[in-house]
Amino acid sequence: MRFLPVSLTTILVELADLDETLALFAALQADPIPGIDEMVPAARTLMVRFRPEKTSAEALAAEMASRDLSAKIPPSDRLVEIPVTYDGEDLSDVAELTGLSVDEVIRRHTQSLFTVAFCGFAPGFGYLVGGDPTLHVARRKSPRTRIPAGSVALAGAFSGVYPQASPGGWQLIGSTPVKMWDIDRDPGALFQPGYRVRFIDMAKDKTVIPVEMPKPEPDPIPAEAPQIRVLAAPMPALFQDLGRFGQTGQGVSASGALDRSAFNTANRIVGNPFNTPALELTLGGFSFAVNCRAVIGLAGAPCPIRIRTLSGQTIDAQTYQPVSLEAGDVVTLGHPARGMRSYLAVRGGFDVTPVLGSAATDTLAVVGPQPVTAGTVLALKMRRDGLCAVSLDEAPAFPLPASGEEVVLDVVPGPRTDWFTENGMKTLTEQGFQVTPQSSRVGIRLSGETAIERRDSAELPSEGTATGAIQVPHSGQPVLFLADHPLTGGYPVIGAVAEHHLDLAGQIPIHATIRFRPIRPFAEIAPKQQ
Length: 530
Prior knowledge:
Layout: E1 2-5, E2 10-14, H1 18-30, E3 36-41, E4 45-50, H2 57-65, E5 79-84, H3 91-98, H4 102-110, E6 114-119, E7 126-129, E8 144-147, E9 151-155, E10 158-161, E11 166-168, E12 171-175, E13 196-201, E14 227-232, E15 238-240, H5 260-270, E16 278-282, E17 287-290, E18 294-300, E19 305-308, E20 314-317, E21 323-325, E22 330-333, E23 341-346, E24 377-379, E25 406-413, H6 422-430, E26 433-435, E27 443-447, E28 463-464, E29 469-471, E30 479-481, E31 488-489, E32 493-497, H7 502-505, E33 513-518
Parallel strand pairs: 5-13, 25-33
Antiparallel strand pairs: 1-2, 2-4, 3-4, 6-7, 6-13, 8-11, 9-10, 9-12, 14-17, 14-24, 15-16, 16-23, 17-22, 18-21, 18-23, 19-20, 19-22, 25-32, 26-27, 26-33, 27-30, 28-31, 29-30, 29-32
């Protein structure tokens, strides 16, 4: 076993193969170590997030090194059959790579009995093992920016089905009409670890696919109910809280507010209980009308607040202060000169339905409440229980950056720092990287004058990724993962932004420059001596 740093609260355990990985995962599930919050198994690694107030990376390493790796995840009796039309763009390439005919590739794929080893990348994406070894092919050298939902694909020793449209580098051999992820299903992921899977050739077996009934529309909010009517949302607003945890077994990551300090502050301003859902607004311009008395609070990127009353009077209000509204008031937020994201809280909270235990909206996984656009009506709870006094003594937790400015982020090197040359590490730490317009809640795409140099072009088996991870694809231009990042990834991570700078990272605007500052040298984690 190797123990590698991911961040200040996460480590990566590298094992010999998938069997050892699943054995350690099974052992830790059967006899948990106090302080572990979440685990993400992958091809030959186990990513472990822990609470530093309860344990340390060195103590975890010692405990895991002593575990028996003979444990197994109990096999499931569940067999899932997936009908496939073998029409994938890469089917002929796979035939050429394997030296087989297209028909023989299809025959071997359909005659294999697969097992779901683990879930990752995206909700409902199962990594299937046990297929014919002849079909083991490398990922594409250049990943596609969009793979259609239902695509059946191969990569290395794995087969899988893309649950939704997403980027990816696997070899596409076919497609299925079966819905792999459905939040209204229990569980939402059709593939669960341990399930057996068989693929059926629809050209030979005329499988009948059940017609999915359309979901009923939610009941409209009564006009007299306390509510907000959205008038303008240049960029869709998103409900957020502190994230959903405990769903990695289905391939669902935590998501949540990008600037957690500002999210918490917005709720304190209006006296809401901890973790009450709020709206995350990007770059201002949001406007809404209220039909009742309400108190709002805005924190994060400082948007000018203008209120037009029912009588036509115009009032200017301040961020980081409670703002009282009367029925008929229209609130319009200007564009912030600094930062990217503001958080809008309403005293008593929004009446929003949690999804998998959280109101966080994950834009990559498409999990959570619907994005809020112009014309949306949002019901207000107007709750009284659990409320505190409004807070008049709030301020930003850190100076917010503006476009064109330079931001320094503390970085923990690892887990794959040793995949890069000395010059590559110097490039990361000595060069400024500009934030490109392709950035989003998934990650900040960066552009530097010099690409980060790798030691070689070896392929990394998929492994867990953490918020703040700096992943370096073959282009050498890094991507800084934010809250909506994929749960697993196949490019090496050179370092991760330290937890104390994640909120700052979520506020960095386009065209700002980021410099990375390592807070310690890269080194494997040595198990604590007992």
